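for the recovery benchmark. tokens below, seq after
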């Protein structure tokens, strides 16, 4: 018999029953979790159970019915994901939560793309590359379920992803970087800013990879930083090598922490929390430093672009840049390839010999 129950974190009544094949089905009723609407949810649950059993005959093989929620729950339990993948799933939840996977169709994927494209966040519409990343995460979950778990489900996403965009690579010249570092010294309200910028320029680490860095994950003997799956966008383990400038920024941070007599596990502790928590955002002081330095249209993430651009300009092979950036695909790194004109010009000059 179908049952309804409240689920933590969901505003709706949830339905649970066993189908003819013995597989338990759990999905959202989309009926708000209010006592006066409980009967409505119960009636809907009974209708769904009846529909699942309708036409079934003993011994008849039926295709198992899986829900989107079962897919997400098992995928996160067995595979996990980085912060970016988790954010993608949270966006997908707003549209697909509680839906049987048998209802997935090309038209439904188009509806999701249209819904997200019309969504406004911080005054701007959601971009096509963002929608592409969200659906790519969904597709990866469906592939996992189909080819590794043996679920008999369809995947209507391949071939329907929005086109990838390389975007504009914004990077600093060494002279601009020097101006930015000098301006960072003037941000008295954020004494960590100079070390943060130095570390970003010399490691290519993402903002939260740096701000959320525990001192215990710094290998001082081998001069490396260790990243666990929960710290990386890719959800993989990673190692970040430290050059002299990056290592000095870290030691300067540790000297500052010692001088402040903070008991903390973070390299960038939040002063307001007494070192219990790390700094969660640094954009305000970063923008102020950019203004003082006369640098326009430059974001925190562009420190990572600058790191990659400088490497390519100095002749580092694109594959090695990929490894240093910890990209999962070489196509992502290739947007920096045009910044090495000297190398290609050298080959063209061979025609004059």
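predicted aa per position
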């Amino acid at each position: 018999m179908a049952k309804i129950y409240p689920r933590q974190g969901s505003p709706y009544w949830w339905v649970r029953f066993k189908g003819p094949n013995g597989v338990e089905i759990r999905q959202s009723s989309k009926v708000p979790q209010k006592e006066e609407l409980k009967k409505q949810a119960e009636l809907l649950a009974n209708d769904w159970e009846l529909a699942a059993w309708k036409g079934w005959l003993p011994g008849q093989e039926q295709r198992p019915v899986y829900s989107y929620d079962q897919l997400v729950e098992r995928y996160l339990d067995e595979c996990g994901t980085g912060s970016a993948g988790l954010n993608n799933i949270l966006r997908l939840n707003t549209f697909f939560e509680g839906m049987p996977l048998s209802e997935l169709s090309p038209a439904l994927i188009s509806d999701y793309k249209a819904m997200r494209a019309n969504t406004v966040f911080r005054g701007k519409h959601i971009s096509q590359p963002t929608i592409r990343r969200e659906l790519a995460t969904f597709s990866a979950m469906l592939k996992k379920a189909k080819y590794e778990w043996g679920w008999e489900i369809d995947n209507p996403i391949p071939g329907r992803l929005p086109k990838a965009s390389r975007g504009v690579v914004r990077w600093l010249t060494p002279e601009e970087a020097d101006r930015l570092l000098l301006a960072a010294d003037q941000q008295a309200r954020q004494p960590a800013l100079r070390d943060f910028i130095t570390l970003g320029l010399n490691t290519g680490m993402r903002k939260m990879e740096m701000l959320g860095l525990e001192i215990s994950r710094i290998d001082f003997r081998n001069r490396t930083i260790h990243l666990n799956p929960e710290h990386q966008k890719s959800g993989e383990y990673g190692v970040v090598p430290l050059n002299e400038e990056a290592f000095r920024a870290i030691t300067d941070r540790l000297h500052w922490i010692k001088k402040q007599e903070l008991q903390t596990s973070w390299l960038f502790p939040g002063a307001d929390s007494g070192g219990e928590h790390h700094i969660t955002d640094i954009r305000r002081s970063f923008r102020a430093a950019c203004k003082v330095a006369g640098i326009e249209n430059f974001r925190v993430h562009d420190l990572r672009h600058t790191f990659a651009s400088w490497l390519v300009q100095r002749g580092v092979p694109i594959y090695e840049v990929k490894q240093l950036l910890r990209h999962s695909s070489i196509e992502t790194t290739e947007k920096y390839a045009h910044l090495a004109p000297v190398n290609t010009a050298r080959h063209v000059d061979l025609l004059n010999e």
